[in-house]
């Protein structure tokens, strides 16, 4: 069977599935990372995902890991971000509702509640017991 017809398999729960970089100027930061890592595969933008708002990328190595440079609101200063400053790594979970009490039981806290991400799924952000921010992503399996 050719690779074009192979079923896409989902990574296991807990797999790193998205890395997010925040930017006031998405095209400028895309230019920076494109020059720094020329083997990153930036995806073409669409009407739904405009270059001013997001630049999606697949990282090298065939790992399936992807990410994006995501626009910060114009009035949001980096030091005023609700979730803190820095890159956010997202881990795949079966259910955000089931993950939240686990995180809290283990000493972590939620800092961004479950949020819809288009028709593809939902994400939420947490802090671990040391204050490190991380995200979880739940795929909309109805699509």
From TrEMBL:
Highest taxon in the source lineage:
Eukaryota
Write the signal peptide boundaries.
none
Q: Which CDD domains match?
A: SgaA_N_like
The record's listing under InterPro entries reads: Anthracycline_SecMetBiosynth (IPR052164), Glyas_Bleomycin-R_OHBP_Dase (IPR029068), Glyoxalase_6 (IPR041581)
The Glyoxalase-like domain covers which part of the protein? Answer: 22-136
Protein name, as recorded: Glyoxalase-like domain-containing protein
Native organism is Mytilinidion resinicola
- Source species taxonomy: Eukaryota, Fungi, Dikarya, Ascomycota, Pezizomycotina
């Amino acid at each position: 069977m050719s690779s074009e017809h192979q079923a896409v398999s989902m990574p296991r729960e807990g797999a790193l599935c998205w890395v997010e970089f925040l930017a006031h100027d998405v095209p400028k930061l895309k230019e920076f990372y494109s020059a720094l890592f020329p083997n990153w595969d930036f995806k073409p933008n669409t009407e739904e995902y405009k270059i001013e708002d997001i630049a999606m990328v697949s990282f090298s190595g065939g790992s399936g890991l992807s990410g994006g440079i995501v626009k910060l609101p114009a009035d949001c200063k980096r030091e005023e971000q609700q979730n803190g400053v820095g890159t956010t790594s997202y881990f795949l979970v079966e259910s955000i509702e089931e993950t939240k009490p686990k995180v809290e039981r283990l000493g972590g806290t939620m800092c961004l509640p479950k949020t819809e991400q288009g028709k593809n799924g939902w994400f939420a952000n947490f802090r671990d017991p040391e204050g490190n921010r991380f995200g979880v992503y739940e795929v909309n399996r109805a699509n």
